Sequence to fold (341 residues):
Amino acid sequence: MRDKSDKNAQGRIVAEVALVIYPDCQLSAIYGLTDLFRLAVTAAQVAGERDAPIIRITHWQDMGDGVACTYDSHPGNPHRAQYIIIPPSLIMPNDLPSMQGLAGWMTRNHEQGAILCSVCAGAFVLAETGLLEGREVTTHWAFADSLRARFPKVKVDADRIIADDGDIITAGGILAWTDLGLTLVQRLLGASAMLQTARFLLIDPPRQAQRPYSSFIPKLDHGDAAIRAVQHWLPAHVAAEWSVKMLADRAGMEERTFLRRFKAATGLRPTEYVQQIRIARAREALELTRRPVEQIAWEIGYGDPSAFRKLFIRITGLPPAEYRRRFGVARHAPADAPVQL
Fold:
C-alpha cells in the first residue's frame, strides 16, 4: 500500500465517519479506526479507481459547553456525519457516568440521517439516547446482563459480534471495532477494499459470533448461601453422577424449592448449569492439552462422544476439533500433559 495522506488524496468524499471521545474510552479504538479507514481509502486508490471514494474521519468530544470537532481529516467542508461511532470503555459499564450532552448530540444527528454505532460497552453510552429501546443490539458478552438490567427495553443478543438494525449498528467485544470498521469499509468502499485492508492489517474479515470467545461466569453474588454451597461443590465433582434430588438434599431443600431457588439465583436450571461447567472444562482441556476429544468427553462425564460434540457445538458454536485448532496453545505438548482446571 502507498503511504499517501488522505488530506492530499484526490477523490470524492462518500461519507463522514465521526468518532466520539468520552471519559475513559478506549483511545486505541479511536486511532485504530482512524488508521483503518485511511488504509481502506488507500486500498481503493491502489485498486485503480478513478475519482476514488474517500472517507472523511472526524473526532468529536463533549467540551462542557457543547460537542466539538477536535480532529478532521478533510477540514473546510460543513460537517454532515453519516456514521457516528461510540468506542469501548476502559472502565466497567456500571461505573460510566451519564453523558446526556453526547446523547443529545447523537439524537440530533440521528434525526438528520446519521447511523449510530457502538462497540462493546459503548452500547451503554448509545442507549442513553433512548433509541435502542425495542431494538436488537449486541455488546460484550460479559456486559450483556448489565445492559439488560440498566436498559430493560433493549433486546440484547450477546452471541452476535455485529448487530445491524439499519440506522443502529452495534458491535460486541473490546476489539470488535475492527469488525465494525471493516463492515463500514465494505459498505462505503466495496468488498475488494475491505478484503485488501483486512489482509494488510493481518486481521480477519468481519466475524459473526461471540460464542467461541465467551466463557461461563457463574453468578455467586446472589445471597442464597445454600445454593452457593451447591455451586461450589459441582466444579469439584464435574464428572460425577448427579440428580436434582441429590443436589436438593445437599442444599437441605425439597426438590421443587431447590429448582425454584437455583433458577432464581443462577439464571439456569441445574441441568444447564452442569452442562456449562462441563463444557468450560472441555474448552480448557482442548486449549491446553492434546488429549483426544473422546477422552476429554469421558473425563467430564460424557460416555457418548457424539452427544458431547452436539452439546459443545450448541454452547460454543464450534466443533471440538475446530475449537482446538483456533484456540489451542498446546500443539507441541505431550498428549497426556496435565491441565490445571
User: Anything to note?
Assistant: Confidence is low (pLDDT under 50) at residues 1-9. The longest strand covers residues 12-21. DSSP finds 13 helices and nine strands in the chain.
